[in-house]
Design a protein that fits this description.
Structural class: mainly beta
Number of helices: 0
Strand order of the largest sheet: 8-9-1-4-7-10
Radius of gyration: 15 Å
Order of helices and strands: EEEEEEEEEE
Distance between the termini: 30 Å
Helix content: under 10%
Strand content: over 45%
Length: 94
């Protein structure tokens, strides 16, 4: 089953953080900050402005930075994804 975002939404594969150890203590996932970087996996068709379809600026394969509390988290086939609006994407990393 594939996920296809609609409109101006983008499906991002979130960058997974490895298990972190400080001294002899392990830091649980709940105490870590969520990553704000990920890879674009799928994009929607675009948004309508003045009756015309405007394509999205980001494309599949782009590595992007997004807002800290943006989007909706989705799990599919053991991977974590985030669905965000294009306006929630802050930058493309080149």
């Amino acid at each position: 089953m594939a996920i296809k975002p609609l409109g101006d939404r983008v499906l991002i594969e979130t960058k997974s953080e490895g298990e972190e150890k400080i001294g002899s203590l392990y830091v649980p996932d709940t105490a870590k900050e969520k990553p704000q970087e990920g890879k674009v996996v799928e994009v929607g068709s675009g948004r309508y402005e003045d009756g015309k379809l405007v394509p999205l600026e980001v494309k599949v394969g782009d590595v992007v930075l997004y807002g800290k509390y943006s989007g909706t988290e989705v799990k599919q086939a053991g991977k974590e994804y985030l669905i965000v609006r294009e306006s929630d994407i802050l930058a493309v990393i080149k």
